[in-house]
Design brief:
- By secondary structure, the protein is mainly α.
- It has three domains: 122 residues, Four Helix Bundle (Hemerythrin (Met), subunit A), CATH 1.20.120.1810; 46 residues; 74 residues, Orthogonal Bundle (Arc Repressor Mutant, subunit A), CATH 1.10.10.
- The chain is 59% helix and 3% strand.
- The protein is built from 15 helices and two strands.
- Helix 10 packs across helix 11.
- The radius of gyration is 28 Å and the shape is extended.
- About 12% of the residues have low confidence.
Length: 317
């Protein structure tokens, strides 16, 4: 097989471009601290939690008003007696328990964002539950709207803030993030780059303060080397796996180690890889199929099968 440096470097630099579903279950041993006293002791804590809250009866409109009235009496009383304190705590617990499903429904909308920041769903639900508690404490039934309308904003704010804080390696005050976002929006309004001086004047800041805000906002967006960027056959691949060690291949070498493994593939598999990863002209699956007299699905299967075999051989050395 003639050596093709473009083929070898393309396969090596792309880390053989393998994508497969990795169903690695992470054991969760934390307990969600919320007003609902649910013990999560089984293996699949999320399923246990969902099953537990599904058995809690929902509140009717009249029950919401009744419970919220008791809570408001307790919260606004200058010196609540012991009886009112007990009634208020029971009403708050019941109000929170009856709206836990609302928290879950809101958290599901942020599930993909949480996954990108490596936040567990239970952690997201816990953050939303804290927002729910604050909403219950501040809800005034005399205004005439339903609690779900009022509580939605508090839950969503708590969840989104949790994602932003956990997604940053350095925790930055929300005010800094807000100023940085406003500055970026102002500078994006003009077709040409807007000066810091003009942006600072429009935001009512000094140039030094704006520079500090933008610098803090920039350095807070760090990327962890343990961040998962792909799923592979032997588990999650992290950015640390892309860093070449002292014994790794250098850019100037001829990739003899890779050519040795390529020669062990079947001829049709090698031919597909040559056409697909040729640095001079890379062919699409349709073009590869036409050149080799195959169906497009067959060409896709050959590449996937060849990459899988090649990846395993490269991993075992």
């Amino acid at each position: 097989m003639p050596r093709n440096p473009h083929l070898a470097s393309g396969l090596a630099a792309a880390a053989v471009q393998i994508r497969c579903a990795a169903h690695a279950h992470k054991d969760i041993s934390r307990t969600i601290v919320i007003a609902c006293t649910v013990q999560l002791t089984m293996g699949d804590a999320l399923s246990d939690y969902m099953h537990a809250i599904s058995r809690i009866p929902l509140l009717t409109a009249s029950e919401e008003v009744h419970l919220a009235t008791i809570i408001q009496q307790w919260q606004t009383h200058p010196d609540p007696p012991a009886t009112l304190q007990r009634r208020g705590r029971r009403a708050l617990d019941r109000m929170v328990e009856g709206n836990l499903r609302l928290v879950v429904s809101i958290c599901k909308r942020y599930q993909s964002m949480a996954a990108q920041s490596q936040i567990e769903m239970l952690d997201l639900i816990q953050a939303g539950s804290l927002g729910l508690i604050r909403a219950v404490q501040g809800f005034d039934p005399r205004r005439g709207y339903k609690f779900s309308t009022y509580g939605y904003w508090w839950i969503r704010q708590s969840v989104s803030r949790h994602i932003k804080e956990r997604g940053q390696a350095i925790r930055v005050p929300p005010e800094i993030n807000l100023l940085a976002r406003r500055a970026q929006e102002q500078r994006a309004l003009d077709s040409r780059p807007r000066s810091l001086e003009r942006t600072a004047v429009q935001l009512g800041l000094t140039v030094q303060r704006l520079e500090e805000v933008l610098r803090i906002h920039h350095i807070s967006h760090m990327v962890s080397l343990d961040q998962v960027y792909a799923n592979s056959y032997d588990g999650d691949q992290t950015l640390l796996d892309l860093i070449r060690g002292d014994d790794g291949p250098v850019a100037e070498e001829t990739y003899d180690w890779l050519h040795r493994h390529l020669r062990e593939l079947k001829p049709e598999e090698r031919r597909v890889l040559e056409l697909r990863f040729n640095g001079e002209q890379e062919y699409s699956f349709s073009q590869v199929a036409a050149l080799l007299g195959l169906k497009k699905s067959q060409a896709q299967w050959l590449e996937k099968h060849a990459l899988r075999k090649l990846y395993k051989r490269l991993q075992t050395g």
